[in-house]
Amino acid sequence: MILSWSRSISFQSSHNNKPFPWINRLEVASRTAKALAHMHEALEQDEIPHGNLKSSNILINGNMEPCISEYGLMQIQSHNKTANSFKSDVYGFGLILLELLTGKVVIDEKGICLADWVKTVLREEWTAEVLDRSLMAEAASEERMVNLLVVGVKCVENSPNARPNMIQVVAMIDSIKEDEEESSINSVH
Question: Number of structural domains, the chain?
Fold first, then answer.
């Protein structure tokens, strides 16, 4: 079976006229995290991280199923950097989460880093200012969006040792998905 990959991820509202609903964003985050965790676990012994994880390396098919492309194409310069390279993948995944939730690019035209901007806004407790307006307009659960935002912020910690591993990230996202699914079931009844 040949899958037709329709596009790489594009979360920025201004570049994409089609709505990208919360539930789809959460599913993309979950599936991408699981795939990356699986790859990390399978390739840890061989010391092969992705090495260049970014939203343009996440391809989405017509069914909104993500696929990680270009895995392992970056050459590792030294074996002692391998552990940090896996944590660099976690950082890249965190940026993808922040893009998913904010609808903003990683570095804007003014040179402002998305991770730094989100951390600053959260310190000021302006959470609603961070989330993509289209998400807020669809009246999705702000609490679950903020919980996913917290996962993203943990992934973009400045110190690689402070970042979770991808298995931990998957567990955090699964918990958010379970809350979302439970809420959907309760709203139907």
Answer: 1
Q: Which residues pair with 61 in a beta bridge?
A: 5
73: containing domain: 5-188
Residues of 149-160 as b/e, b for ≥16 C-beta within 10 angstroms? bebbbbbbbeee
pLDDT digits 0-9 by tens, 2-48: 334 444 455 544 344 567 899 999 999 999 999 999 999 998 888 88
74-121 residue pLDDT tens: 655 544 555 678 999 999 999 999 999 999 999 988 999 999 999 999
What is the pTM assigned to this prediction? 0.86
